Amino acid sequence: MMNENGNNDALLDDTEEMIIEPVAGELAGDFTQAPRAPRRDLPQMMRKIPVTLTLEVGSARISLQDLMNIGPDSVVELDALAGEPLVIKVNGTAIGRAEVVVAGENYGLKVIDLDGLNLDMMTS
């Protein structure tokens, strides 16, 4: 397309300022001209995500009627044997076994083994 003077270069000079760079997600294609975000060390970032660590003593499957009858002196038998290691869970997923210990004025856990946690994946 030519401007009134027939000069294509002048027309291109006028439109250069109107070029809009594509934003990721707007158009499919090559985004090599758009500035890239700095590369992050994902494992390092993951180390800062808080998780809930719990120690599961055992469980019991009971009826709602039995649950309604539980009171202050009730005893509910669990499926774990006395003295056997307890299950360590992270966000509800079993990752190993541990024993209960006293740590100061609180209970703590002494890890026996870690089966379900890939610690090598977290190192960089």
UniProtKB/TrEMBL annotation:
Domain of life from the UniProt record: Bacteria
Hydrolase recorded as keyword: no
Localization per Swiss-Prot or TrEMBL: Cell membrane
Chief localization: membrane
Domain Flagellar motor switch protein FliN-like C-terminal as annotated: residue spans: 46-113
MF terms (GO), sorted A to Z: cytoskeletal motor activity
Keyword Membrane tagged: yes
Annotated membrane topology: Peripheral membrane protein
GO BP: any one term: bacterial-type flagellum-dependent cell motility
Family classification: Belongs to the FliN/MopA/SpaO family.
Name recorded for this polypeptide: Flagellar motor switch protein FliN
